[in-house]
């Protein structure tokens, strides 16, 4: 009986907490309205009472420990990020002590300068102390400016941004709507898609293969706003909302997003992240939710340290050098044999056109018996004829390819690589 009562109390307390949090988010959205104008493109809101960076710090600590043996710089990079989070957490704690309940960042452009901070003055909040925390704390070096009291809030920004804040009359009702749509979370970010952003998305989409460009093109034409919500307790979770023009557009985007995710699953470097993403449609919105386990899967792929990326690029560059040496040896063999290239790469070693057999092994796959796939051309190959590529079992995300004129390039599109292979009669 006692256990049943305890469970009921626990469920009730969680429900009350969630309801209070939802009410706080709605109230924060109303406070935000008077500080946005038609130029506002990004808003970030932090609920100071519930926002907690401890789960992120724990993940970073676990990540540093699990990658300590891989590269010295990994631990250094993670520690630098951890130090920044520590400073931010300390600053937020100081702001919370002033009695403030909400913090907003309002941006008119994504240039890191056209923005200002807003701290609504709650009952009992100390105006002077809030100003001191803002002007001397963590953000002082990030947002250059001064503090001014307006509309029952303390606003920090440069003179131009303060003028915008004073003149704002709430011209973008979709911005508070986006924030309120994530009620129940501890922090929210909302992005309104501007004409410039649509044009940028369209330009990128045109340069991608159809299977990757189509979802981006849909975003450029059918997306109204994006909103991201973070919740720290009882366990970390993230929710992403994409507000589309209508349900049909949202469903079409979801279908294309699922197809893109499936392609990502074929890339070892992105397989775990892709496995964590499960898009769904809710009315005219595309929704992606990540719980603690899914976040860990996604971060495992996204948070690859610079040291490991540099190592990958270095081994790729060495592999491409090996391929160029092989192609030069093949061309020399053709010169000695009336334009006919060798039947196999081993012939280059036996004819001493390659002095070091180790060149036939790929640095990225040192244990692989056949590191490169050789496609013997019929006669002298043309400059765009694929004759060599890095062997793989599953599509690795990008493959180095050698051509008949001796040049080597990296192919990042699996579909593009398949087209090259089909021209040579491969599968």
Can you offer a commentary on this structure?
This protein is an alpha+beta fold and 427 residues long. The chain folds into two domains: 15-306, no CATH class; 307-423, no CATH class. The chain is built from 14 helices and 14 strands. The chain has helices spanning 2-33, 54-66, 72-97, 127-136, 159-167, 174-180, 195-206, 210-222, 247-265, 271-276, 292-302, 306-336, 346-350, 414-423; strands spanning 42-47, 102-107, 115-120, 146-150, 153-157, 187-192, 223-231, 237-244, 280-282, 285-290, 372-374, 386-390, 399-403, 408-411. The strands form two sheets. Strands 4-5-3-2-1-6-7-8-10-9 form a ten-stranded antiparallel β-sheet, with helices on both faces. A four-stranded antiparallel β-sheet has the order 11-12-13-14. α1 runs antiparallel to α6, α2 (54-66) packs antiparallel against α3 (72-97) and α8 (210-222) runs antiparallel to α9. The radius of gyration is 28 Å and the shape is elongated. The termini are far apart. 26% of the residues are buried. Mean pLDDT is 80; it is low at 1-23 and 69-73.
The first-to-last residue Cα distance is: 66 Å
Order of helices and strands: HEHHEEHEEHHEHHEEHHEEHHHEEEEH
Average pLDDT for all residues = 80
Using only C-alpha atoms, the radius of gyration works out to: 28 Å
Summing up helix and strand content along with how strands pair, one would put the structural category as: alpha+beta
For the largest beta-sheet, the strand count, sense and barrel status come to: 10 strands, antiparallel
Number of domains: 2
DSSP E strands, number: 14
Strand percent estimate: 15-25%
Poorly predicted sequence stretches spanning 5 or more consecutive residues: 1-23, 69-73
